[in-house]
Specification:
This protein has a single domain, classed as Ribonuclease Z/Hydroxyacylglutathione hydrolase-like (Metallo-beta-lactamase, Chain A, 4-Layer Sandwich). It has ten helices and 14 strands. Helix content is 36%, strand content 24%.
Length: 335
């Protein structure tokens, strides 16, 4: 074989290797987007028997005891393997209960997979009853909306309709409290009394303006009412002047672990935002004029995010306060 032919073959082999290598990288990138690795989900021990699971999309919560494990929210669809791997790093106990804090994509995305775990075994090799799923009855209704139709295994097996549903698990009283018309009409606050931990769901975040799904009954007024419910439940360990530090710990829908002082700061921001908007709407300004005034300019850098911008939040507030059918719906894109 001549030298020139050898070089041509070598170049062809190298090109093929590059193509296949790039294809492999491209496939791996797609897989990483569809299903994050367990390493992408960080776990933080909040109490001796309580963990916060921090996913790229938001927070989940896990209580563990002699009776088994209880998970609050199941994460976005396509992340089930990573979530289960993160749970197994904490405990090999079976998953007996799931609580959904709303019908949002972060809350029910993996219900169909987790709700089918026989014996609650997180490795998929168990036998016996599947985990019980608790949520407000409106979550069940949203799961059966046209175009949604989740399988029955994903539905709440305990869809409560009262103001509060309470259970006792792992020696701890757990209150599941309905917060109507907040992020949506199906929000629940989950209060673990003995652990002194509250899981707030989408009502509270340290990273963005409050989400408002107006198509499903969400309102900023309801968010404020939900934040007031959280403030009533939280008890600080230390009160210094106007600061309420430590004590009850609060797991937000997204962002860092919080105490009552953090919650108060967020509540005040939402209240101020609503008051400013109410003042502008009362002057009969159009939505465009309100946006041009930039009423939330001092909060934009901290709370405006690409999937829920200041403009989208103002849309929701304007539609609610003006009662205008011409204003945009303000419904966030549920990815």
């Amino acid at each position: 074989m001549g030298v020139s032919k050898q070089r041509r073959l070598a170049r062809a082999s190298l090109a093929a290797a590059c193509v296949f290598g790039m294809a492999g990288l491209w496939t791996s990138a797609l897989y990483a987007q569809a299903e994050p690795s367990a390493a992408a989900i960080r776990t933080y021990q909040v109490r001796p028997n309580f963990w916060m699971l921090i996913t790229p999309d938001g927070n989940l919560a896990l209580q563990v005891g002699t009776e088994g494990a209880l998970l609050v929210d199941t994460g976005r669809s396509g992340t089930s393997d990573a979530v289960l791997a993160a749970i197994r790093q904490i405990t090999k106990q079976p998953l007996r209960y799931i609580i959904n804090t709303s019908a949002g994509p972060m809350q029910i995305g993996n219900n169909a997979i987790f709700g089918a775990l026989k014996g609650g075994a997180t490795d998929g090799h168990g036998k016996g009853p599947t985990p019980a799923i608790i949520a407000n009855e409106t979550v069940l209704a949203h799961m059966n909306e046209p175009g949604v139709k989740l399988p029955a295994v994903a539905w709440p097996s305990d869809a409560y309709s009262a103001r509060k549903r309470s259970i006792r698990y792992n020696g701890e009283a757990i209150d599941i409290i309905h917060a109507p018309s907040a992020y949506s009409d199906s929000d629940s606050i989950v209060y673990f009394r003995r652990s002194d931990v509250i899981v707030a769901g989408e009502i509270f975040s340290t990273e963005r303006f409050p989400l408002v799904d107006r198509k499903r009954g969400g309102t900023v007024t309801g968010v404020l009412a939900g934040l007031n419910q959280l403030l009533d439940l939280a008890v600080p360990d230390v009160i210094v002047e106007n600061y309420n530090e430590d004590g009850t710990l609060i797991i937000p829908g997204s962002g860092r672990l919080c105490d009552k002082d953090d919650l108060t700061e967020y509540h005040d921001m939402v209240n101020i935002a609503r008051d400013r908007m109410a003042n502008l709407v009362s002057t009969k300004r159009s939505l465009e004029e309100v946006k041009a005034a930039r009423p939330l300019i001092d909060y934009e850098q901290r709370y405006s995010k690409p999937d829920w911008t200041t403009s989208m939040f103002i849309d929701a507030l304007y539609a609610e306060l003006a009662g205008s059918t011409s204003a945009k719906s303000g419904t966030p894109a549920l990815k």
